Amino acid sequence: MQVIPWIGFLALILSLIAVDLFFLHRKPHAVSVREAFSWYAVWVGVALLFNALLYPAYENHWFGIGRHIGHELTGTQAVLQFFTGYLIEVSLSLDNVMVIALILTYFRVPAIHQHRVLFWGILGALVLRGIMIGVGAALIHRFVWVTYLFGAILIFTAVRLLILRDEDEVHPERNPLIRIARRFYPVTTEFDGSRFFTMIDGRKTMTPLFLALLLVESTDVLFAVDSIPAIFAVTTDPFLVFTSNAFAILGLRTLYFVLAGILDRFRYLKMSLVFILAFVGVKMLLSHTYPIPTAVSLSVLVGVLLIGVIASVADTRRRERQ
Questions:
Q1: For residues 145 and 278, which has the higher predicted lDDT (pLDDT)?
Q2: Is residue 173 part of a domain?
Q3: Which of 234, 235, 263 is nearest to 93 (CA)?
Q4: Backbone phi, psi, residue 295, to 5°
Q5: Given 97, 143, 152, 289, which is the most exposed site by the fewest CB atoms within 10 A?
Q6: Cβ pair 208, 189 in contact under 8 A
Q7: What gap in Å lies between CA 77 and CA 297, rounded to an integer?
């Protein structure tokens, strides 16, 4: 019976994706900030509505949900863990937005075709993350030391993010997926509308749009190595891990169009992300000796993000006055 919640959630996600693909963006167009903000608000609203439904589902253990992780979660625990995990994923995706912007700029992807790259890139990322979450959950439940490994990875990532510049993260010529793809297909520097492949002299040829898609896909896998362990620090329930991840990833497309042009004005958000990664890493290292309650983690997360935003806004205003 526990499979029913998974089937129901996947049906919901596929329905939302179908509406997006076949109705909302049937015709390619440049997504305005206003349109993107409206749809991001819709995605956040759907995530919050889903979170509200988790309370009675876990409180009453509908279809046995919440009992497959070794102990029963209450409705309050499930709601707090989902929301904290969702907020962590959204926070960490801010850095992902900046890298995606660099990728699309590098390949000079026209604004009218950027949504197509992001749609298929994030759809692929959703499948890959589902696989990684399944493997991660199995490892954590079988090997206790994996929790410490994940914590160490997060702390290492925090240090790396602290010293790494954004422009250092985009090197298409070094990407293994692009190298492999170029062995099978020739590459053209010209776009052919919204097509990933085109025919040149009778040969199937990759367009820059497909190269951008490959790079977006591969960089999301790298970000998943950071973000998935971060969620496991909040909850080890695979259903909560996957659903919070899925909603954050699906909203990333519209979040990109909202923030890509103004993210450089929030210069202190990067420091907030560094602190969040380090905090979650320490939380995992202490999980078996001094577990930090989810409510405390949520308070720290919200506080750190607010400090980053307020400091960034104040700094931007100061520079504009100067």
A1: 278
A2: yes
A3: 263
A4: -60, -40
A5: 289
A6: yes
A7: 13
| Rounded average pLDDT over 99-126 | 81
CB neighbour burial string for 254-286, b if at least 16 within 10 angstroms, e if fewer: bbbbbbbeebeebebbbbbbbbbbbbbbbbbbe
d(CA 63, CA 300): 33
SS3 291: coil
- CA nearest neighbour of 254 among 82, 32, 50: 32
| Other Cβ atoms closer than 10 A to 177 | 15
Nearest C-alpha neighbor of 267 from the set 226, 302, 314: 314
* DSSP one-letter string for 141-156: HH-THHHHHHHHHHHH
In a domain, 4, yes or no: no
* pLDDT classification of 147: cutoffs 50, 70, 90: confident
What band does 49 get if pLDDT is binned at 50, 70 and 90? very high
In the numeric block, which tokens belong to residue 140?
A: 């954590």
Q: What pTM does this model have?
A: 0.80
Asked whether residue 16 is assigned to any structural domain, the reply reads: no
Joined tokens for residue 309? 């935003």
Terminal-residue alpha carbon distance, the chain: 63
pLDDT tens, position by position, 156-193: 877 877 776 554 555 666 667 777 777 888 888 788 88
14 inside domain: no
The tally of domains found in the chain comes to 1
Chain position carrying tokens 């591969």 = 218
Token duo for residue 86: 């969702």
* 290, 235, 228, 261: CA torsion to nearest 10: -100
What is the residue range of 73's domain?
Answer: 25-317
Tell me the C-alpha distance between 316 and 68, whole Å: 48
